[in-house]
Amino acid sequence: LTGLALGIHYDQCPQVLYRLKNGILSSPKANPRFWWLVVGNDDALFQSCSHSHILAGIMEITNVILEQRPKATVVLNSVFPADTHHTMDWKYSEVQTGSNYWSTVIAPLNDGLKCFAASHYDGRVKFFDASPLFLADEDDDDSEDDCIGCVNHQYFDAH
After folding, report:
1. Cα dihedral sign, 105-106-108-110
2. Which of 18, 86, 106, 137 is most buried per CB count within 10 Å?
3. Does the reported pTM lie above 0.70?
4. Cβ(15)–Cβ(57) under 8 Å?
């Protein structure tokens, strides 16, 4: 096994963390070189979690993986943009909507994930930004200079 994608449709950070702590990491076969995390969007859409809370959840998931699998690399997939005005689901009522969804939740969350990956674990955490695949006009500011300490700053300012 060289890679493992975590996440099931409708998964949120607590469900992924639960499965890691209560099953996945207890199996010696679950020892891929790469762990790819695609989680966070449903936390925002269906639970109205703030970007700082989702970021804390993803950071905890990453920490748990790397504590148990110190040779692994964790890839943090950016959280995808979503059309909150037309998203309905049989399991949930209308999702939390708002015209500022991208600018108040997803963009700051992706910035935090990028910063977290750039500043931790000696290169064992990577960030994959899928946003340009979904957005027509994306900032081209790829500078990591602004990332020093930004994760802690964003997290603690929100609490």
Report:
1. positive
2. 106
3. yes
4. no
